[in-house]
Amino acid sequence: MKAIEVMGVKKSYQMGEVEVKALREATFDVEDGEFVVILGPSGSGKSTLLNIIGGMDTPTIGDVLFFGENISTYNEKALTMYRRHQVGFVFQFYNLMASLTAKENVELATEICDNPLDIDRILSDVGLDDRKDHFPSQMSGGEQQRVAIARAVAKNPRILLCDEPTGALDFETGVSILALLSRINKEYHKTVVVITHNASIAGMADRVITMRSGKIRSNTINENPVSPERIEW
Hints:
Layout: E1 2-15, E2 18-31, E3 35-39, H1 46-53, E4 61-66, E5 69-70, H2 76-86, E6 87-90, H3 102-110, H4 119-125, H5 141-154, E7 159-163, H6 171-187, E8 191-196, E9 207-212, E10 215-221
Parallel strand pairs: 3-8, 3-9, 6-7, 7-8
Antiparallel strand pairs: 1-2, 1-4, 4-5, 9-10
Helix pairs in contact: 3-5, 4-5, 5-6
């Protein structure tokens, strides 16, 4: 079953007298349950694409279907409900509430959705059993990213969108985060989409989509994904 269908999507911005073409007719599908890496250099359009899939932006032209529903036709209220119930976001810089503990950060996200998962179980699954009562300032970068992942997963979304989730981390911590995302993909049966400029990460994906200058350059199935522990960069 197709989780995402992106069909002829273009996105343009007006900056003064200059029209910036961030996306140029992007077209591809993502199957339900896939681990997808969208790979490209800075400025290639991958963040714009992720924002459109996640309902944080809308295409200038084209359609995006989510399990057959055309979210491109949604009004702002419908997009808010889509983001709230269907999508989990993981960002490069965590975006945690500094005044809340790890558990409270996760609880905050579950209060706005209909069918959340058990918070204590999720925190245990991401390796934070003994850190859930700590504040972000008391945690390492890797631990904060684990909280951010737990927060996204606890909402019980159908898809997890990750924007450079290892970008602010050292190699060893980055690999552990990738391993965690891989485990969530398999054990929780979540479609996971990771955008990155790091070509090494593509080796662990089921599907690799490469971008440059706002265009999809390739969309390939990886027949033999490697475990995150075998990735080096």
